[in-house]
Q: What sequence folds into this?
């Protein structure tokens, strides 16, 4: 074999062995949500909504293998009766002993402006039919959470000033529903209901109040052991007053919560501690988080159990420059809401030339082995829901997990060809 021929073959093998990019296009969609069962041999579920009239309208999902980042199912048609918009998702991962224990709650706003929900099993099978949560109160935003053995869906209605709730057990049986709280002015950004197992309280962070400026409020509450709202446990804390607020996010933080809000095009974070009786106390403001030209309202955060020092993973959208593209900025925060690197300019940037990455959603897999993050977003340049899975150093999982066949083949063939070449020269 000629040396030139060997070189050509080696180049071809090395190309085959090059890691593939792991960003998935889940489907056409404007809003995207993500959760996981929390196990290395388990799955994560990406859910997206579509408001087109091309036969793809509704809510869809797809399972992917954790720490492998390849599809584990076909597209799951969760809801196909009409177009859909805002979505939310929760999983029972904090109570799971194995992946088969996991249940997902998916909530969405449909084209008729009413809130709907459906429960799915760990493998994407349907536990319930589609459930209309309310036939009197139309909504703009929906949220979902899990804790104390129950799922909870929230949505606003009655002039968008009242926050309603529905509680489910893991079989899909409704155990309670009604009015959670009435705010002054329209409610926005209730995508997540966080649960802190240390205090036993659920937390919601939202924007409220009509007019040119807004308030931001935190509300916490408990569920009873039989899945009822404990109305005596409700506490409300005003976080901001009379501000320009266009985004909100929340995550549990072992005895409290971390909240994030976008005001005047910059993101800030704060710790909210919960006393024994549930009274919330607001910590110092951290920020601004300002990487590019101006940050907008899309953001998500989740608690990361890494087995040693727990933290928060925070993803928000930003403009890379005046008139530039939208990017997703990812930041690691301590449980006090302070950036772990002390910088606040972003630990990782998800960007693509000529593309707009918006409305990020993030879910963390606990550290049975090193933790991983599943980050999804809407690419508004092409109307597609996208996402990928990342390791703690923000390496895409595909770069280490998806190419062992080609990598091992390459090493073996390189060795064989090297030996042949040596013998050929003798």
A:
């Amino acid at each position: 074999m000629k040396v030139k021929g060997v070189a050509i073959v080696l180049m071809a093998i090395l190309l085959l062995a090059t890691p593939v990019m792991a960003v998935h296009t889940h489907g056409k969609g404007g809003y995207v949500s993500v959760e996981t069962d929390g196990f290395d041999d388990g799955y994560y579920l990406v859910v997206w909504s579509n408001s087109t009239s091309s036969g793809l309208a509704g809510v869809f999902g797809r399972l992917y293998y954790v720490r492998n980042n390849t599809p584990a199912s076909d597209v799951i048609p969760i809801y196909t009766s009409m177009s859909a918009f805002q979505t939310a998702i929760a999983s029972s991962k904090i109570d799971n002993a194995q992946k088969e224990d996991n249940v997902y709650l998916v909530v969405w706003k449909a084209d008729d402006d009413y809130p709907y929900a459906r429960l799915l099993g760990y493998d994407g099978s349907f536990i319930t039919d589609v459930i209309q949560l309310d036939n009197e109160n139309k909504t703009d935003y929906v949220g979902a959470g899990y804790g104390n053995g129950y799922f909870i869906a929230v949505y606003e209605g009655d002039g968008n000033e009242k926050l309603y709730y529905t509680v489910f057990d893991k079989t899909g049986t409704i155990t309670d529903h009604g009015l959670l709280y009435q705010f002054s002015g329209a409610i926005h950004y209730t995508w997540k209901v966080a649960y802190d197992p240390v205090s036993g309280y659920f937390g919601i962070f939202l924007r409220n109040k009509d007019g040119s400026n807004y308030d931001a409020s935190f509300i916490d509450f408990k569920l009873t052991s039989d899945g009822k709202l404990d109305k005596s446990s409700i506490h409300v804390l005003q976080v901001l007053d009379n501000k320009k607020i266009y985004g909100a996010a929340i995550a549990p933080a072992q005895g409290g919560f971390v909240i994030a809000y976008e005001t005047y095009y910059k993101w800030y974070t704060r710790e909210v501690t919960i006393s024994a009786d549930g009274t919330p106390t607001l910590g110092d403001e951290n920020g601004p988080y300002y990487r590019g030209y101006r940050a907008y309202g899309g953001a998500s955060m989740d608690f990361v159990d890494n087995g040693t020092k727990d933290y928060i993973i925070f993803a928000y959208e930003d403009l890379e420059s005046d008139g530039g593209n939208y990017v997703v900025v990812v930041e690691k925060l301590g449980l006090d809401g302070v950036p772990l690197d002390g910088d606040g300019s972003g630990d990782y940037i998800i960007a693509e030339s000529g593309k707009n990455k918006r409305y990020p959603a993030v879910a963390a897999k606990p550290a049975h082995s090193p933790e991983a993050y599943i980050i999804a977003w809407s690419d508004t340049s092409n109307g597609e829901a996208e996402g990928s899975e990342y390791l703690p150093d923000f390496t895409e999982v595909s770069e280490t997990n998806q190419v062992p066949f080609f990598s091992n083949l390459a090493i073996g063939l390189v060795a064989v060809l090297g030996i042949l070449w040596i013998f050929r020269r003798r």
